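Marked as duplicate of an earlier ticket. Keeping the data here for the record.
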Amino acid sequence: MKLPDKTIGIREAIGETPDGASVMVGGFGVPGTPFCLIEELVRQGAKDLIIIKNDANEGGMGIDHLLENGQVARLITTHIGLNARTIKMMNAGDIKVEFCAQGV
């Protein structure tokens, strides 16, 4: 018996993300970062997002694309040190960054 194909496209899987949505993004640095999710969020263009992620990725990848596009209002994270854009935006008051300890 052949099982039905239950795959769907990224647009259908994510749906339309409203402005101000909270989005929890997986990954630890680059490994595990859902690049397709992030690309779709950039395409949709929702603004004032609250992004919850372990780190801010490195410049030019991952959530840095959302930051570059001006879509992030607040970042809840443990580490931003590898992303100069995040540091600059935080220091300029362009985004709010909330740090959560990653352990002892």
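See parent ticket for discussion. The chain has one domain: 14-99.
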